[in-house]
Amino acid sequence: MSTRLTCPLCRARFTRATGSRRVYCEVCKPPRKAPRVVPVAPEVPAGPVVPVEPGLLELAAMDVLARANRLGSFEGALFLRLAREADQSTGEKISRLIPGMLKAKELALAGWKEPSNDIVDRLAQQRALKAEAAS
Q1: CA distance 54 to 60
Q2: Other C-beta atoms within 10 Å of 123: how many?
Q3: Could you give the CA distance from residue 57 to residue 96 in angstroms, rounded to a whole number?
Q4: Greatest CA span in the chain, whole angstroms?
Q5: d(CA 111, CA 104)
Q6: In the chain, beta strands by DSSP E
Q7: What is the pLDDT of residues 83-104, one digit of tens each?
């Protein structure tokens, strides 16, 4: 059953539907329409996210490759890539990367022997250099 009411704003007579709590007429307060909400997808970056600063493993790998003068080699680049990936990883993924990193390090440093910091070795190298220069 509908009820006849008078709008308090414009004094117009209107019929209120059964179950409605409307007090104002359609002109003064039009019916509410639920705003249409369009879901917005989060912005996803294109490609992998690369940190600006290198991590600890990548810095250590760069140091070893620089001392061996192998930074520009393919194997050195592979070792650096795996080190960067390991810096960004945790848990199970890093445990899967470690064997590959060790193999890449072996390939990158193949044939290179790290110079010893022993004083006796350094003195022997200096004597050898002087002997070469004298002859």
Answers
A1: 10
A2: 10
A3: 15
A4: 122
A5: 14
A6: 3-6, 13-16
A7: 999 988 888 888 899 999 999 9
